[in-house]
What we know:
Structural class: alpha+beta
Radius of gyration: 41 Å
Shape: elongated
Amino acid sequence: MRTITHRRSALRTAAVSVIAGTALLAPAAAALASSPAPARPAAAQPAAAKTTKIDIGAGVTITVKDGKPYYDGKVIKPGQTVDDGIYVHLSADGKRLYSKTQGGGTPYAIWDVRTGKLLGTQKNSPTAKVKAALTAKPSATSVKAWQELRVGGKATGIKAGSKVTLQQKQRGTWKSLPAGTSVNKSGAYSMRVKLGLKGKNELRVKSGATLSPVFNVTVR
């Protein structure tokens, strides 16, 4: 009987301990539940689009919104030209604006669309066709037979990627040689050349219908 009494006392003590522990945990849990959640940072708001104004003169202002210039309330598209007494042209890449407000010899003003700053002026219309032309210059004017040299130059009014071929005058007739290359993005070209015809060689460079001035290379 004593043993039974001892066990019942131990069970009662354990039950009291559990209840007491629960009572102690309850305020802490309540405190955690009542604690405010950490504030989340506010979402970044997109910056307002900057508006630039370009005063091209004669009381005319071009407004640039979101990188797009507007004239008389209408957007000017890349490559578009407006000519209604006031001349305005937007470059194909949309980065430069050309304007002209007077006739005669007044130059065309060049504006940076992004900043609205004046970059300078030019005499020719930005839409005027440039006459195709080629220059050609050899790296040496006298070489041994089959000695390598280079011929290079600039192409104006000729599209990048256009083929450029070296021609040699043979018995009064111009013949295209295997030497050739393409015009790069900056309008330049350079090709490797080997000549075996001894004596004075008359040469020129050809791209489509465009020809360079004739130049000479002597092969020893």
